Structure formats: structure tokens, C-alpha cells
Amino acid sequence: MSHFDKIVDRKGTSCFKWDTVEEGVYSFTIADSDYEVPKEVKEALLKRVEHGIFGYTVVPNSYYEAVINWCMKRYGFSIEKDDIIIMNKVLESISLLINLYTKEGDKIVINPPVYPPFFALTEGNKRVLSSNHLINDNEHYSLDLKDLENKFKEGAKMYILCNPHNPVGKIYTKAEIEAIVRLCNKYDVFLVSDEIHSDLIIYGHEFTSVGKFFHLHDKIAVCISPSKTFNIAGLRIANLVLKNEEIKANVRKHLERYKIGGANLLSLLACETAYNKCEYWVIEQQKHLFKNYEFARDYLNKEVPYLKFANPHSTYLLWINLQYLNKTSEQIIKELKEYKLAVNTGCDYCKDYDGYIRFNLACPQSILNEGLKRLAKYLKDQE
Ligand SMILES: Cc1ncc(COP(=O)(O)O)c(C=O)c1O
User: Fold this and answer.
1) Which atom of ligand 1 sits closest to the CA of residue 93?
2) I need a surface site. Which of 19, 105, 181, 307 has the fewest CB within 10 A?
3) pLDDT tens column, 305-317
4) What pLDDT band is residue 37 in, cutting at 50, 70 and 90?
5) Which of 232, 254, 277 corresponds to the end of one domain?
6) CA dist 129 to 35, 112, 158, 160, Å?
7) What's the gap in Å between 238 CA and the centre of ligand 1?
8) CB 356 within 8 A of CB 329
């Protein structure tokens, strides 16, 4: 049996996905996966834990080399040690950049439907949301570049791009990325690219990092992380990649001022080991992901042929349109509980998407099968 089809009981491990649902409920919620980390990562952590002392830590050069090599190998752009700022979380990086490079009342552009904390970070910091909605053509999502330019013309100061896009799974094309960077440069917009899902590519698709276009614009930040890729979100680690010297100095100054950022010795070790030794594991995971996506697509097409959902290029997320039920996402979530199924509410990603749900495919296929059965049963009972 493949590593990714092995069932590991996560109940009772302070696990958000499985310990926040009632007994018997199958959970396909928060964006982590149900797989054990690669054996190399587990062994390195066990060895380090065995040592028994966890005092203050210095980041080894080998850590930076691992990140530099990963960026070149996986994303095709070149960075140096000084370009990497180690953070606890991608959201911590975005929050810091919002606070440093925009002020209260400034407009920040995002692409709804999108990862809910982008709304919270913008409005919670008293910035103004400027929504460049993705165009939804029968669950095929595309970027409205013309509207994006209009938003920039209206004076937006920052653009938070989610590439690959959570929840619709879109990967922007190279041409789109270049056009975005050029527009940011033209209108002097700070571009923050959240690329946390960029290792989870579904077969046949190709990812282009904004990092390939640092030369076209000064105000660029690329947020990468091993957390989704290797299922280590609980260890907390992310890398903020910057090229502009002034921005790097300013970010470092503020990290020092507030004594934030950095990561713990176990997450540094996990990231370095994974990047150095586990590329093969990422490729295996991509195959599993593709298999799970095909399985879900074929199952749903057969059992509930009228159902519409996005065809993800990346991520392990299935974005499902249940608006035909004429119910709110919240109502649907509540009713699904009766069917012992937990998923995410679509309206959190944009109010216009009330009635959608997000279903996490990152699990063994037998678990997925059970979840899909419950979903199909619920939908058939609504007919
Ligand atoms: C697009 C995106 N960005 C950021 C995060 C959170 O990352 P972190 O835990 O490193 O803040 C997630 C988690 O689901 C995500 O999907």
C-alpha cells in the first residue's frame, strides 16, 4: 500500500481537522493532509528529540542552502542567503508586510473567492478591501486583468496574490504572472505572492513563481513554505523571500523591534531535511493527489452528474458549487453533520459564494471514498 493510502489515526493528537469534529464524523476541512511526513523527516526529528536538549538555536548555513536549492530546483529562480527571512507562518509574513507597506485606509487587492484570512488581515488592520473577483465561467476561473488594472488605477497600494489559488486550485499562467508584475510596477503596487501550495501540482500543469520576475519590479515579496507540502504546518515555519535591499533591511528592523519571526529548531530541521532529501516524496504525493482528484471527479460525475465543481490545477482542494440547493453554506454544513461529514463553508471565501463548500482531498483514498459516499447520499436525499 502506498504511503499516502495508509490510514493514520489523528484523533487525540490535538489535531484541528479531526479533534474538532464529533465522534464518527469524517473530516475534510482545514488545509493539511492526513499523511505521515516522509520517513527521512521523521527520522531526523526523532534523532534530534533523542538528544534531549532544546535550547536557543542558531540557524545553520545548511538550512539556507536547502531553501536556495529548492527555489532553484522547484521554482526556477535564484536567491541568496540574505534574501531569505525565516518566519513562523506565511500569514505572519503577510501581516507584517501589510503593516509595513500600507497604512490605515489604503486599498489592498485580493481575488475572491479566496483564503479567508486575506479578508481578515486587510480589514482587521483597517485597510480597505479592493476585490478583483475571479471570473467564474461555469466553474472555470480566470483572472480579470482589466479590472485588476482598474483597481490599481484607483490607488491600491498592495496586491495579495494567492498562487496556486485557494480554494479554486487555479495556477496563473506565466503570461498572467508577468502581466501582474508589470502592472504592479506601472502603478507602484506592492506585490505579495502567497505560494504556499506551489509544490502541490496536479499532473499536466505547470507553476510559475512570481520569483522569476524579481527583476521587473522592486516591491515584490514571495511567501513560500514547506508546511503544506510536507504536512508540517503544526511545526510552524515559512520563508519570506525578498530581493530589494531596502525592504529586506526594513523587514529585519521590524522583526528585531517586535522580537518576532524565526522558527524553532525542529521546524528548521524538518524543512532542511525535506528540501534536501524528499523531492521524490513530493512527486509521489502529486501522483496520489492526481489519483484522488480523478477518483472524486469520476465518483461525483457518476453519482451526482449535475454537480459542478472546479477542476484544480494545484492544491488538494475541491471547490464544489451547491448553490442549486438554495441553501446557505452554513445550513449545508449543519445538514452534512447529520451525514457525519465535515467540510469548509464557501461563504467564508466570498459572500457571493454562499452555498459552496470546500472539500479537502489530501487523505487516503479509502477515507475519500467514504466522504464522497456521504456527500452523494446527502445530495441525493435533496433531490
Ligand atoms: C493560501 C494559504 N496561505 C497561507 C496559509 C496559512 O499558512 P501559515 O500557517 O504558514 O500561516 C494557508 C493555509 O491553509 C493557505 O491556504
Assistant:
1) 11
2) 105
3) 999 999 999 999 9
4) very high
5) 277
6) 36, 10, 10, 11
7) 10
8) yes
- Residue 46 and residue 171 in one domain: yes
- Per residue in 21-31, pLDDT (tens digit) is 999 999 999 99
Domain boundary among 277, 292, 308: 277
Q: Which of 17, 95, 98, 115 to mutate to test the pocket of ligand 1 (most atoms within 8 A of CB)?
A: 115
pLDDT at 203 over 90: no
Measure the CA dihedral 144/146/152/158, to 10°: 20
Q: How far is the CA of 303 from the centre of ligand 1 (A)?
A: 32
**Domain span at 138:** 42-277
In this structure, the number of other CB atoms found within 10 A of the CB of residue 197 comes to: 25
Within 6 A (CB) of ligand 1 lie 31, 89-91, 115, 162, 166, 194, 196, 225, 227, 233, 238
Instruction: Please give the number of the atom of ligand 1 that sits closest to the Cα of 233.
Output: 9
Terminal-to-terminal C-alpha distance of the chain: 37
222 and 90 within one domain: yes
Is the pLDDT at 256 greater than 90? The verdict is yes
CA of 225 from ligand 1 middle (Å) equals: 9
Q: How far is the CA of 207 from the centre of ligand 1 (A)?
A: 18
For ligand 1, the distance from its centroid to the CA atom of residue 138, given in whole angstroms, is 27
- The pLDDT tens digits for 64-81 are 999 999 999 999 999 999
Do residues 286 and 200 lie in contact, with contact meaning Cβ atoms separated by under 8 Å?
yes
Helix 174-186 vs helix 145-153: crossing angle, to nearest 10 = 10
Task: Give residue 1's pLDDT band: very low, low, confident or very high (50, 70, 90).
Answer: confident
Ligand 1 atom, smallest distance to 225 CA: 10
